Amino acid sequence: MKRIISSLKCFADWRKTAFVALFSLASTLMADQVNLLESGSESWTQGWKAGYGCSLSLAPVGSEMVLRQTLPDDFSKGNHSWQMRVPVTPGDAYSFHVLYQLQDVDSAMVQFHFADQKGKLMDYLKFRLSTEVLKGSTQDWKTLNYNFEAPEGAAYVLVALRLNSPGTVYWDKPTLQVVDKSN
């Protein structure tokens, strides 16, 4: 019986050590994944630029600030987005994530436009990527994920959080990270 108890203690110690090591490894790997976008309560306004034609403001949700993007029923055509230009490397893979909530929206999305070294947008039709269209109303936060590869000749990607119809979108924690393609 003593041998069994001793074996169980060794196993419990091994599990605890393995868990600590695994948690430490996961934390290290996550820390190495730098968010290329400024996001969160203190930096929504740093590096992000507003398009025209819609109301963009910070709204408190719990202890954090999120972006509230609103278009009235009588909105005019325009660039209804919150945008950030980020350096990219051609051929590298990227992963984008953002949390969102919708209130009576017919069309919202995230678009990615690529620009060359001089900042000139590349062929709009060939080098524009879009997520699926978001619509409706949500009570809970939803996650939008999108992966892409930077095309040859691209030096920047313009990430645009877009609202294309009347309604309100709340955006939070946008993240853009380089993905290791070897995995």
Written overview of the protein:
The chain is α+β, with helices and mostly antiparallel strands. The protein folds into two domains: 1-32; 35-179, Jelly Rolls (Sandwich), CATH 2.60.120.260. It contains one helix and eleven strands; from the N terminus they run H-E-E-E-E-E-E-E-E-E-E-E. The protein has one helix at residues 2-32; strands at residues 49-50, 55-61, 64-71, 81-87, 93-103, 105-115, 128-130, 134-136, 142-149, 156-163, 167-179. Strands 1, 4, 6, 7, 8 and 10 form a six-stranded antiparallel sheet that branches. A five-stranded antiparallel sheet has the order 2-3-11-5-9, with no helix packed on it. Strand 2 (55-61) and strand 3 (64-71) form a beta hairpin. The radius of gyration is 21 Å and the shape is globular. It starts with a helix and ends with a strand. Residues 14-31 have low confidence and may be disordered.
Largest sheet: 6 strands, antiparallel
The portion of residues assigned to helices is: 10-25%
Shape: globular
Structural class: alpha+beta
Q: What number is the mean pLDDT?
A: 78
Which residue ranges are poorly predicted, with pLDDT under 50 across at least 5 consecutive positions?
A: 14-31
Task: Please sum up the structure shown.
The chain is of the alpha+beta class.
